[in-house]
């Protein structure tokens, strides 16, 4: 257990795997996943950047085994890499946090420089950074791993933690003095990073597996999940998730009406025009220009009711000239509205 999340995932990884575009992961035993985080001597991917600490965790039955491969001196790097390869032998997939862009490419470079085979080369990879951004971008100002631990998992770090940005200097100091004691906080930092990967995967899997029934505190989280479901092709369930999220009273006005808009177009793509129109009528009462345009389209193209279509456009033109809209918004909307108005006047006059 880490905060409110169990370390070992129990829910299906179906939706996580779908987002990672790796359907083969759905049936892969959790014992085959390697949870990996590195501490490095720099932020680049050049030959002079070392992974002086590589933390890797994997499940062994009910237990989570975490190993930290520390580079006592750069001359021992080949041995460090060999030990990592041996530890990864049972694994077939990666879990990381920004590992696709940084940790793995850097590790690959180190193995290549030593002419050693790259472990899990080409293996499926769940990068939780990208999925976390999708789920909590609207609610959290930062989706850094430490912030997700605090606000999502409910597990803030202790004072023993050392920020990751201090790692390069601490390691350089260690190489100069030989005193490893100042690195204790970095060992803790890396350990918690790896544990958090398992807990975060567990939490996200549970969240995505049953979003219509499990307790979810924030409406914004449900709206993000609904959008994810829609993007992954399950629009029917996505609509239900949106509607659950819209019932929350902790949604701010802008988020609420943005969700109404997204849900209305979801219904439109599904051919559920009546449901879409209900939402557009709600949005039109709130002065939403797009809703007026969509209702005008329905009146014009489906019902051939040109006066009604013209009514919606003229209402939109009145609204766009109110102080609630900026000059930039008027410039963006006016050409389309005026074009539709001219066309509908001609049609209505026939």
Quick recap:
The protein has 350 residues and is of the alpha/beta class. The protein has helices at residues 14-19, 77-87, 99-113, 128-136, 145-151, 167-177, 184-209, 219-231, 235-246, 253-269, 273-285, 289-302, 306-320, 327-349; strands at 33-40, 51-60, 63-70, 93-96, 124-127. Helix 9 (235-246) packs antiparallel against helix 10.
Task: Describe the model.
Strand 2 and strand 3 (63-70) form a beta hairpin. The protein is 55% helix and 10% strand. The chain starts with 13 loop residues before the first helix and ends with a helix. By secondary structure, it is α/β, with parallel strands linked by helices. Helix 11 packs across helix 12. It has a five-stranded mixed β-sheet with strand order 3-2-1-4-5, with helices on both faces. It folds into three domains: 14-209, 2-Layer Sandwich (Nucleotidyltransferase, domain 5), CATH 3.30.420.10; 210-270; 287-350. It has 14 helices and five strands. The chain has helices at residues 14-19, 77-87, 99-113, 128-136, 145-151, 167-177, 184-209, 219-231, 235-246, 253-269, 273-285, 289-302, 306-320, 327-349, and strands at residues 33-40, 51-60, 63-70, 93-96, 124-127.
């Amino acid at each position: 257990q880490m905060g409110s999340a169990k370390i070992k995932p129990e829910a299906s990884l179906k939706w996580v795997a779908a987002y990672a575009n790796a359907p083969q992961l759905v049936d892969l035993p959790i014992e085959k996943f390697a949870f990996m985080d590195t501490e490095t001597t720099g932020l680049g991917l050049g030959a002079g950047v070392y992974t002086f600490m590589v933390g890797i965790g994997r499940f062994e039955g009910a237990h989570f085994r975490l190993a930290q491969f520390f580079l006592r001196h750069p001359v021992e790097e080949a041995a460090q890499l060999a030990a990592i390869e041996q530890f990864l032998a049972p694994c077939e997939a990666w879990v990381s946090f920004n590992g696709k862009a940084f940790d793995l490419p850097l590790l690959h470079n180190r193995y290549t420089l030593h002419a050693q085979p790259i472990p899990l080369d080409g293996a499926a990879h769940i990068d939780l950074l990208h999925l976390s951004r999708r789920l909590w971008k609207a609610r959290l100002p930062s989706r850094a791993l430490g912030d997700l631990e605090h606000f999502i998992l409910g597990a803030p770090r202790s004072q023993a933690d050392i920020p990751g940005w201090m790692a390069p200097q601490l390691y350089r100091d260690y190489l100069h003095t030989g005193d490893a004691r100042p690195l204790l906080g970095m060992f803790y930092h890396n350990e918690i990073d790896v544990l958090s990967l398992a807990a975060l995967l567990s939490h996200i899997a549970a969240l995505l597996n049953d979003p219509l029934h499990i307790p979810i505190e924030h409406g914004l989280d449900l709206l993000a999940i609904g959008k994810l479901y829609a993007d992954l092709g399950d629009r029917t369930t996505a609509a239900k998730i949106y509607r659950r999220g819209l019932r929350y009273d902790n949604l701010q006005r802008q988020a609420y009406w943005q969700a109404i808009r997204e849900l209305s177009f979801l219904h439109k793509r599904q051919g559920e025009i009546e449901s879409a129109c209900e939402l557009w009528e709600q949005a039109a009462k709130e002065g939403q220009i797009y809703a007026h345009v969509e209702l005008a389209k329905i009146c014009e193209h489906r019902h051939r009711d040109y006066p009604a279509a013209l009514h919606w456009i003229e209402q939109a033109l009145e609204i766009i000239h109110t102080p609630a809209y900026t000059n930039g918004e008027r410039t963006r909307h006016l050409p389309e509205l005026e074009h539709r108005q001219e066309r509908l006047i001609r049609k209505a006059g026939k």
